[in-house]
Amino acid sequence: MTDGAAPSEPRTLSRALTWLGFNGRVLEEAQDPTLPVLERARFLGIFFSNLDEFFMIRVAGLREAMAAGVDREGPGEEATAAILAQIGQRCQDLVRLAYGTYEREIGPTLRESGVHFLSAEEFTPKERGFLDRLFAREIMPILTPAAVEPGLPFPHVTNFSLCFAIQLAREGSSERFALVQLPRQYTRWIQVGSRGGFHFAFLEDVVRHHLAELFPGHEIREAALFRVTRDADFATDDQEAEDLLDAVKHVLKQRRGGDPVRLELEASASGEIAERLAAFFRLEPESVYRLPGPLDLKFLIEFTRVTSLPAPRAAPWPPQPSPDIPSGDAIWEAIAERDFLLFHPYESFEPVLRLLRLASEEPSVLAIKQVLYRTASNSEVVRALERAAENGKQVTALLELQARFDEERNANWAQRLEDAGVQVLYGLAGLKTHAKALLIVRRGPGGIERYAHLGTGNYNERTVLEYSDLSLLTANEDICSDLTAFFNVVTGYSEPLPWRRIAMAPLGLRSRILSLIRREIEKSTPEDPGQIRAKMNALVDEPIVDALYEASNAGVRILLNVRGSCLLRPGVKGMSEHIRVVSIVDRFLEHSRIFEFRNGGDVETFLGSADWMPRNLDRRVELVFPVIDPELRARLAHILDVLFADNVKARELRADGSLAKRLSRRRPVRAQEVFWEEARARAEGRGEADRGAFVPLRSVPD
Amino acid sequence: MVDLAPAPPAAPGVTNAPPILSVIDVGASGVRMLLAELKADGSARILEDVQKPLALGRETFRTGTLSAASIQKAVNILRQYRAMMDGYGVTHTRAVATSAVRAALNRDTFVDRVFLATGIEVEVIEGSQETLLTFAAVQQALGAQPDFAREHSLMFELGAGATEWALMRDGEVAGSLTYDLGTLKMRELLRAESGDRRAMTRLIQHNVREMMHAVKRTLPFEKVANLIAIGPEARFAARALGGEGELAAVSAKDLRTLADRILTMTPAEVAASFSITSLEAESLAPAFLAYAELIRLNPVDRLLVARASIRDGLLLQMGKSIQSGSAVFFPEQTITAALNLARKYHADERHGLHTAALARAIFDATHAQHGMGEGERLLLQVASIVHDIGTYVAARGHHRHAYYLLINSEVFGLSRMDLEIVANVARYHRKGGPQSDHPAYAALPRGARLTVNRLSAILRVADALDKGHAQRIQNPKISIEDAELRIDVEGAEDVALERLTLDQKGALFEEVFGLKPVLRETA
């Protein structure tokens, strides 16, 4: 074969590798010297946090699949093995780069700003004394050394916990081995402040200094910090091979589930300890990461939230009020009159919280129904629901099924809600309820009134500040009717009935999307080609990818904004030449899902909670809803215009799966900055006039 | 005819809030509820539309009774519905049960258990009432589509236990029929032919042909322009085949293809791939094959599927009753059905209609005495129209023949109790009056016995006034004076025969109302 396209050209990209491309983009932000150092540190924390989850779920899943002979990634076991090898290589490279960035750039820059992480030798005697007292009083009592005895099972090391592997020697006896896990509930960094400035000690360094006290009569030959990552696939919904409802399988899976998948180890650890641990955890050398710096840099996310740090941080983009929405309880009437779209976090989540708060107090409100997915325990949302129930309203809160097992905290507030009289439900068996929806039923003078909030983001006070999401506030009869039916389905009051407007997973959302794509194909002509613009976190559903290829071949122009994993190979002649895929990584996590279909000029736009992934379409309860108001549809079109015009933080996915900078002779467009400026302009009453300044493109320039 | 609970006071602090209605339907395959707000223009705004699967039909049609477990399941569902109703402050409720409960030997136990546990009074309704309610909803939905008003349309619901038929002509029901073939029986047939799909198809086609013959024998039509299907299977077919709107059209070919596809799958697979319950899935293939065959047997090229359900009809009826105070629904259709019955047994149609008119006039004139309403007025007219059908069997004792003919008939829109009253009224249109040692009469509840007394008293007078079957007494002036019911007729016609008969047959009237009927001629 000498010319032409290779006949075995793969139809799809690797889900795992494209995801790693995304995380590489996050690392790129951490490496960007033009960003303030705390912003870079935050991105580095996010990079490691992402990677943790990736190993725990994705890599674990692939390893399992390989062990079970289940095909997950490619056409066979061999493909899975090959992908795993590529992932391993890529991760080693990324981690090396990340530590280089920390050790050579972020760490030193922080120090220059007066933020120091000190090692044991760097403390003054006074500081030393403080740490000694702290250790004796608070830390020592919660440490439990565990001896590793031959013939006894290896002590259990919790997923992600930092742990010392210690080699002990004692006169007259053979060498012994022990483990000391650091308490996870204890803060990772301890401020020691006698010199002015910001000096911190890592918990592990404080413990290391005192290890000998834990083993009286022994000499410590070596103490090496390590961290193990385990297969937690069982605890998540990211399952492909099994049926959650099958309890037997589930238990088997749980037993197998905790298998280690990655070992991280201080670079200074001896080869002997490294080998020993790798053997204990049955991990091959490729899965052992020797790290030339502090383990678990994920802590940087929390650390950079410490507001008093003197280091430079990004200028805040605080959420702006939405001037269209009247203040106080005039919001009811406003929503009854017309729909509102809120673009978070540029625009404040306050109207949604206000609506909920008003609903909890107003005597005319009969019922409140809400899906709570990853909601903080002491959140205003939970308090409002509690209050509403106490005020005698019918309150239904739907928690995702598996949240019950998540953390005790969760169970606590669920209990609190129940005690207040809230009907707490855990959704449909085997399906996580991922939809974000709130329905308020009120008795008005003219009859029953219904108000809905539908969104792409969770009711979580932190993520509404950090994730880019969209909210729709509406009293539209069809939407509210559908939402009423939706709650009846998820609470078990009714079996599903045909919807008026919305689409719900797992009941027909995929087929709805496929039919929308097919309609686009049918309406597309050479003179007037169809167009699909869609934004989501991941695109890994094969039937949808195939339909998009078909649409591309039919001449439909397809613009995709996919943050992470993407199965679709764009720009391949004869397959996907009309498809372009871009990904944006910037300050706010891109989290909204927007689906726009040209529909022969009669544009239809949907928002929702679902990515185009089998997980979301088959094993989660998701909602996708149309934006009916033409003005709001136009606003969403503008948002898509800006997103696709970004040439600063956006990267374009190439046919080989790599991400490339978008070369443009136009002036720089940074979408998130544009959105922030627009939100501020609106809040300040400058309104729409300024909007024109920001790239009102209708499609991506070729 | 329809008992409505009195409306409770409106929610505190809210005046003129629209009434909130709930209608519940305990069907053969599920329990469903619609909760709606009645708007000033009479339309209903649906607030809740819920349904839970429950295989009551499968149980009664096989074993004849409902098990304690099934009754408990129904109670549990209805408790949930009750909570929902209370949440909205529902002002009017109507709950009906159809074929599955109707056919159960222990239906009273069911009704009683539900009432004790939930406070919901379930009314077991007849197939013809079901058809009427659904028809009303379909008619409402079709609105003023003139095409349908002009043409003959056959509407049917292939239920689990039986198929209900109604012929529509000029926007009215010209006749109705309940035929004992439903999806459950078809499924049994399929099971007997396990695996051989062609044999199964032939069996269903054979049974459907038999049914169509019966429909053509019973309902007065030559050919129909539209074949309208109602019911969940039909709605599913429309959905699966992409039909939309109030009347979705589906072709025989598509139906057969869909049925073939479904027959190769297990009910669980059908349920999964079409997003329905496996219970619903079981009845799909037989229903689709039946639809396809019905299209073939009629000169139509497609089946029209109406979206409306019995619950929509119930809502419509309740709304009408709340707003106009009248609970009688489609009286014209019931009259038409009564006339068809009279024709079927070759009764004197003109005499029947004339008697009905006279009876109506007496009923209205004596309203202050009897205080009866629209429902009883309709029953009186039906009884008047059909009172002579017993002559089909024999002139001698024809009042007794009328009784059993009626008791074994269906009249569109009438409940079982309504029909028993009509049969008794016809029974007592001549010879001896109601007597407590007549078992059929004695078996009626007291209220119904009183109605029979009053209505048969009126019917006897009206019948006497047309003794000659010549409609000689036209537009009589009826008044009450000096303990007399005065019937004044103008003109020179000889009414001696009528007067004589009235003297004989008026005794019951005098007994019941304390008024002596007197026929007077005025100049």
TrEMBL record, chain B:
Domain of life: Bacteria
Name of the molecule in the record: HD domain-containing protein
InterPro entries, sorted: ATPase_NBD (IPR043129), GppA/Ppx_hydrolase (IPR050273), HD/PDEase_dom (IPR003607), Ppx_GppA_C (IPR048950), Ppx_GppA_N (IPR003695)
One MF annotation (Gene Ontology) recorded for this entry: pyrophosphatase activity
Coiled coil: none
Ppx/GppA phosphatase C-terminal domain: residues covered: 337-491
Naturally occurring in which organism (per UniProt): Eiseniibacteriota bacterium
Record-annotated Ppx/GppA phosphatase N-terminal domain positions: 41-318
Listed Pfam families: Ppx-GppA, Ppx-GppA_III
